[in-house]
Each structure stands twice: as structure tokens, then as C-alpha cells.
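Give me the fold.
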Amino acid sequence: MESETPTRKKRSLREFAYLYFTGICMGAADVVPGVSGGTMAFIMGIYQELLDAIKSFNRTLVKLVLGFRIRDIFSHIPFPFIIVLLGGIGTSVVLLVKPLEKLLNDYTGHGRVFLFAFFFGLVVASIAVLARRVKWSKRTGVAFLVAAVIACAICLLSPAQTSTTPVIVFFSGMIAICAMILPGISGSFILLILGQYGHIMGAIDSFIDALKAMDFAEMGSLLFSTVLPFAIGAAIGLLAFARLLSWLLARWYMVTLATLTGLMTGSLVKIYPFKKVIEWGMDRHADPYPVKEAFLAPALDATCWTALGFAVAGFVLILLIERMQARLLPANLEG
């Protein structure tokens, strides 16, 4: 039986600004393989509300729509929350896809190192914040260790090359969206493993360019071949997985929290900044992509100290966000 829509508090303008900023952070995190938008939602205190908003798209909503009960629909769906959060995510995707892709593909310079250093510090601080909320016991400790090992194993997998048909893109969207809302596992990296990351990101980038140029033929081609199949698959996966996560948090909150913390810890191997590509592959567009990377000890040079500075900046940013969240969203993560 579907649960009733929870009572929602009214937000101030400052709280909506915080929510919009959260969306920007989630969008930026989801673009980078190895970082999860779910991580950002969790540490910024809106995770349960996000799950509740997703769960509101249920059988009750279908009945309201079929009955043309417009007022009840607006009462049932938290539209202000969804619109502002999606606005932040959309802003982040539109503004950051190209610069982040450029940094991610900077294998000869230092852009990739600095980008991953920043997110490494950010995730380390997030782990520390969440670990303080866990009531540690044998059960939560085992959950943490198992999750960390699983996340680490996933992050060490080599990317595959698969078909980019609409059907494959559809199922890739279903799988990746689960990771995108799951703290610790990056949806972008799941797409990378499935061999779809370059195709999806390229399609989004091209769609934005076509939209700016008002090229409706190109927009239609991209929409039906990639964007729409991915969006539909993501929507279906999101609706199903949000219910599972909500159920786990309601029944085994501390174990689930420890598991999420473990997933984030295991994911650190993916965003370790100092790595060297030792094997390259070639995608269908003749563009190179890394297949295997070796971990390197950082040399104590200017690059290392600059990367450390970015890592510290990411760490401090999370501490500032935690303080901001404590004022704006008190007790949001309490179980």
C-alpha cells in the first residue's frame, strides 16, 4: 500500500537558494565518473526528501490524473522542491558538461589531476561527516567493510565497449540512475563501465549545441536515438530504486547508513588523483579512452602541492556545507 504524502514545510527564499545550490552540486558530481550526485544529496541533507519526492509518482498520482483532480495533484507532488532541484541540476549540466569533460580528458596536463583532487577531498570529508552519524557496532562495521570492498571492486573494473542502440541506451539509463542516487557509486562511472559514457555525454553536448543553433533535425535525431531512451530508462529505474532505498532506510537505518558510507569509501580508488594510463582503447568515433590505469605515488612538486590545495578546498567546502545544512535543514539526516 502506498504511503501518504508526508507533510512538507514551507521554505524560505534562502532555503530555496540552498536547494538550488544542492542541485548544482548534484549535477556537477554526476558528470564526473567516480562521484555520485546521491552523495551530494545525502551530505546536504535532502536525501530522504528526494526519495519521498520520487516516491510521490505512484498509483495515487495516476488516480488523481485520471480523475482530473488538479488541486490534489499539486498537493500530492512537491513541485517547488522538484522544480528548484532540477533547475540546479540542469544549470550545472548546461554550464559544466563541456569544461568538466575538458578537464576529464586532460591526460597530458594537470586538469584531470586537479579535478579529481578536489572531488577526493570532497568525498573524504563526506565520509567523515556520515561516519559521525553512524552508531558503530559489529553489524554496521561488517556492512561498511562489505560495501567498501564491493565499491572498490566495481571502480577497478575496466570500461567495456557495447552497442549504442536505443534499447541498450534505455537499459543503461535504468542501471546508471540507480547509482546516481546511491551515495558512493557514480552513475557516470557505471555508464563508463557499460561503454555508454562517451556516447551519452556526447549526445547531451550535441543536443545542447543543436538547441542553441535551432537545428530541429539534429535535435530530433538525438532525441529519439539517445536522449529519450536514456531518460525513459532512467525514470523507470529511479521510481523503482527510490522505493527500495526508502524501505531500507526506514527499517535498517544505521546499517544502511554504514553501507552508504562504505560505498563512498570504496569509491575513493576511482577518484585518486595520481594515476597513469597504461592501456588505451579506441571508441567507435576513433577517440581514445583509458582502459587501465596505474596508481602513482605523488611527487613532491608544484603539481602535488596544487592538487593538495584543491583537495583541501573540497574538504573545507563540505564542512561549510555541513554548517549551512545544520542551520537550514536541522535533523534532516537523523534516523
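DSSP finds 14 helices and two strands in the chain.
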